[in-house]
Task: structure prediction
Amino acid sequence: MTTIYDVLRRPLITEKTSFQSSNLNQFTFEVGSSANKQQIKEAVEAMFDVTVLRVNVINRPSKVARSLRNRRRQVRRGGYKKAIVTLKPGDNIDVFEGVL
Amino acid sequence: MKIERQDLENRQVELQIEVDSDQLQAAMHSAARRLSKGTKIPGFRPGKAPYEVIVGKFGEDVIFEEALERLSQEIYRDALEEAKIEPYARGSLEEVIREDPLKLRYTVPLAPEVDLGAYREIRIPFEDAEVTDEAFEEAIEEIRQRQALIEPVDRPAEETDLVIIDLSGELLDPEEEEDTQLIDMKDISVLVDPETDVPTPGVMEHLLGLAAGDEKSYEYTFTDDHPNEDLRNRAAGFHIKCLEVKSRFVPEWSDELAQNLGEFESLLDLRANLRENLQKQAEMEAENQHRDEIMQKIVEGATVEYPPIVLQEETENLLQDLRMRLGNQNLALEDYLNIEGKTEEDLREELEPEAIERIKRGLVLGKIVDVEELKVEDDEIDAEIKRLIEPLGAEADKRLLEAFESPAGRHRIAMDVLTDKAIRRIIAIAKGEAEEQDVSTIEVNGKEENNGMDSAPEISGADDMEKE
Result:
């Protein structure tokens, strides 16, 4: 059984997402890799008591990088799936609540 | 911004300022921005993170402190302007009374206030210095003694001989953990003279009759009026080893001896010269003493009020002086303190009375310059520079000349000259030589000055001078 916490991992706060949240009413989350748009929509609506208009999902694949300790060793940096949720005008998520 | 003003004693003002919350918010935001510039916050370019994120990262307290640092100064400036207070030195933020709305308490030092009192009525007659015949004879005898011919001799030591000895001594009944070694000197020369206690009391009778190569041990009990309390009535054993005996032949006065002493034609010439020098020296001493007396009197008669920060600074200056003097002997202040067994606080406390005295003198002199309307003209400064440079000859360091000629240098010299003038003026007053018609104008000026604070630069200048 998946709970909303399995779907919504954490809010993603960056320069770009803060711009989107304050100007476009779009909020970005890192979500579980197997979550689909429908689940995300339901989870956000349940958690923050808002109306979701649209969900865009982007899968950021993992990347191969060199280890910091041993430059020759290759390591895989974890990938993640992120969802940009557009809310009904007037709705708001205090993204900073419980962050960091 | 609401300002509550309260006058404290010692020329200080307390300001309690309530800061508008808008101003505080603005300061917090700009502080947050400054903080974030120096740190990386993931997802943001440096300095671009929103306020809330920065608060989340640093915590409100840190940002508040950072904001306060600048805000408190800004507020201080504005408050001074609004309350029309002229600070004499940097004020200090004493405490944050409340954070919301922000309320701060400052203490502002004001310019020292000097009331000279009836300094114009001070009369101290100058007493001419005189060199007594005894003092003169003593001085000339000393010169003769210094001309003694010293020769090694092969006979037991007699009075007025010089012996070279090794001397060691230790306490015979040492208390626990006491250093028993009293003295341990090698190769010292001692004048055999029953009148003196050098290098240790009781040694003289044993020196008499000692010949080169002799060794001698003796016991001695210190008298009960020995300057060192720990040693009174204690028995000690001493050991002397005589290395050499030298005779001292003190020549009689003659024209020849006088000629040997320098550019003197005869004994008479030397005596005249010496008397003149002694006279000059005595006069200078008398003048200095006279000046100090007057100064003392004026300072006593004057009421001087100054904020504590002035005292702090002066003490700091004295400490710095000491540090420099020690530095010349390759000694750090810390080592000196160790040797003396004192802490820096002790030392500060010790220096305080001197600092107070110096402050008073400086302030009083500065005030006199004001009240007496003493001024320095440009050509006087030039003359002074010339006077300072001249003894150095044509080779006078170019940099030195530049230092003197720079605006700051000229200012310092002007201050020197001014202080000098002030001192000369008070001496004249004390001798009753100052023109009386000045008094009426001075009275008026004096009153004006008491309200104004523009005497500050002169005072600090005179102060500076004192320090050098």
About this structure: The first strand of chain A starts at residue 8 and ends at 11.
